[in-house]
């Protein structure tokens, strides 16, 4: 068989590329050919997946979510660049893990985008997962040249947090190089404001853990929206993504929001590679209800099922039942924790266990077995 190997990362244990390599060891040992095509859905690991597909990694130092310098990167191929919010100003970059709901900003994301444009990229693909901020994309816009002005006409400081958006009374938008397009990998449909908006839904996980803080951030975003775009982009699906960065990207940069896996799959040439496969092996750290909401393995399985190609999956843990798996297009699964019940040991020996799981799947997949 020719096997397309398209896993997402095992968070905390293996990158998507490492998972793919561990799967390939079992596939080639059984005499099959393999195409390693690790995937992502626009969250953390998206740049790594692009690099694994042949993009070149470019290192850049940029501002973390609270202004501290961090080492990040973007991936580049031809006119395309891939940038990942999580790696530069996401929750994982908060110093000491301390949440800063009113102060964290997206300025670092804008700095990485600016570096990609300066390098010659003309299409920028942004992954928005893992945001630490609720700044409506203000910091991102500032890093790309926007000027935010207060009531006295003075320019507000760069890296404005969500708590200070009410100070903005005028915006001079950024000007991007001619021919620039920005596409955003986004799997949420929240508007910017209100009970389903950025502050109410995602603010608590970023430290806005009281009703008062949520109300403060929602009011600040509403003030920002009135200044930036009174025409209604705030109500568009995805405007509330990444603390309102989706709104800022659409309103100030004309960005287009697209489902994360679809956008990544296009960059990887996934459909062309799928057409050559007899079997697809996917997976991620945990196959659960969240998997079915547009994450990498679900995207892989959906496209493979449409092409009539069977899909099996390996995971650290499988929380979906046989009917849910079949509904997703997955005909067989194997779990690391079934081989090694101790979580610590399973994580420490994840690559070896992935290979063993795939050996089980290859032995049973022709029967369409499920776990």
Automatic annotation (TrEMBL):
Q: Which InterPro entries match?
A: Glyc_kinase_flavodox-like_fold (IPR018193), Glycerate_kinase (IPR004381), Glycerate_kinase_RE-like (IPR018197), Glycerate_kinase_sf (IPR036129)
Q: Supply the Pfam families for this chain.
A: Gly_kinase (PF02595)
Cited Gene3D superfamilies: Glycerate kinase, domain 1, Glycerate kinase, domain 2
- State a single Gene Ontology molecular function: kinase activity
* Record key words, sorted: Kinase, Transferase
Domain of life assignment = Bacteria
Keyword field contains Transferase: yes
Q: Does the keyword Repeat apply?
A: no
> Which SUPFAM superfamilies did the record assign?
Glycerate kinase I (SSF110738)
What NCBIfam families does its record include?
glycerate kinase
Q: Belongs to which family?
A: Belongs to the glycerate kinase type-1 family.
Q: What is this protein's name?
A: Glycerate kinase
> From what organism does this protein derive?
Actinomycetospora atypica
Its organism's taxonomic lineage begins at: Bacteria, Bacillati, Actinomycetota, Actinomycetes, Pseudonocardiales
